[in-house]
Amino acid sequence: MKVFVYGTLLKGMSRAHVLEYALFLGHASIPGQLYDLGAYPAVRDAEGEGVVYGELYEVNETTLNRLDAIEGYDVANEKHSLFIRKQVLVTCLHDAVEHTADTYLYASLIDTSCRIACGDYRHYLIDKGGNRPQWYIAYGSNMSTKRLSEREVEFVDIQRGELAGYQLIFNKEGIRNDVKANLRYVGNDVACPFVAYALKSGQIDKLDRCERIPCHYVRLGMPFTTQEGETFLGYIYLAHPEKLTDEKIPAEDYLQHIIHGYEEHGFDIHTLPRHNANA
Predict the structure, then answer these.
(1) Range of 245's domain?
(2) Residues 155/200, Cβ–Cβ less than 8 Å
(3) Residue 275 in this model has a pLDDT that exceeds 60
(4) Gap between the Cα atoms of 32 and 52, Å rounded
(5) Residue 274 has what pLDDT?
(6) Taking phi first (over 0 means left), then psi (-120 to 50 degrees means alpha), and beta for anything else, what does residue 24 get?
(7) Is residue 276 a part of any domain in this protein?
(8) CA distance to 134, 145, 148, 208, 212, per residue, from 154 (Å)
(9) Does residue 206 fall inside a structural domain?
(10) Residue range 106-125: average pLDDT?
(11) What's phi and psi for 256, nearest 5 deg?
(12) Which of 3, 93, 139, 267 has a CA-to-CA distance to 70 between 20 and 30 Å?
């Protein structure tokens, strides 16, 4: 069955190992509001205003029973459960397809002053890091340092790597009847090159304006592993589901930014989607 998770079970979080052998279906969202309860976050009702971002998995009965135990859910005694497992409507970000899945909703009242406004637990944890550099994961035109310089975005460090299971696609609607880069999780043996920048304070706000947050892209927290094997938590921009369109050839000037980024950081340009002869 399918399960939507939004807290400590997310990749890179303290209980992610519980879903190590579950089938990851992609980044997703549900309606509702996310709250910080201290040791973990919680959603009270999967309805109303607001969006909660997380991950969608397919799990077997053994894993589901383990999740029930972790979340303090007793199917025979819901009244005294910490969380209650309920069916909700989940939207996958990469294709906007809706799924019915279970998730865990907090059974008690919640102090609404503890709301996590961004709706994303990993994003929230990065924000809590204060003024230290924040990692930004670029997989499109911003892989080129020249492109970042044109956007006056400053950084203090660079890391490189590949996002295992992800594929670069061009299915995000632009503002000039064109398409922009996006990611799709497909699993198997594919991987998408990325460049991670440690941004100076305030620089992520510049990128938000460039990426037209929140209407065109969604900024989420996501773990990444460098070529040296180190793992960090960083921001990544994924296309807003309402801005998805059919895959097609991107504008040549936009594609050239990506090609320059690949060449600059030592990635094979032949692994780029072969949309035209110049790629």
Answers:
(1) 130-271
(2) yes
(3) no
(4) 6
(5) 60
(6) beta
(7) no
(8) 11, 10, 8, 14, 19
(9) yes
(10) 95
(11) -65, -35
(12) 93
| Structure tokens given for 232 | 């960090």
In this predicted structure, what is the pLDDT of residue 133? 87
The CATH code of the domain that includes 158 is 3.10.490.10
Question: How big is the CA angle at 32 (ends 29 and 33), to the nearest 5 degrees?
Answer: 110
Residue 276: predicted pLDDT = 42
Place of tokens 């939207």: 91
User: Is the same domain home to 111 and 40?
Assistant: yes
Give the SS3 label for residue 28.
strand
56, two tokens: 């969608």
Two tokens, residue 40: 């973990």
* Burial per residue of 203-236, b for 16 or more beta-carbon CB atoms within 10 angstroms, e otherwise: bbeebeebbebeebbbbbbbbbbeeeeeebbbbb
pLDDT of residue 40 exceeding 70, the answer is yes
Helix, strand counts (H, E) of the chain:
5, 15
* Torsion-angle region of 98 (φ positive above 0: left; ψ -120 to 50: alpha; else: beta): beta
- Copy the structure tokens of residue 70: 């972790």
**Cross-strand partners of 26:** 56
In percent, the amount of the chain with pLDDT more than 90 equals: 89
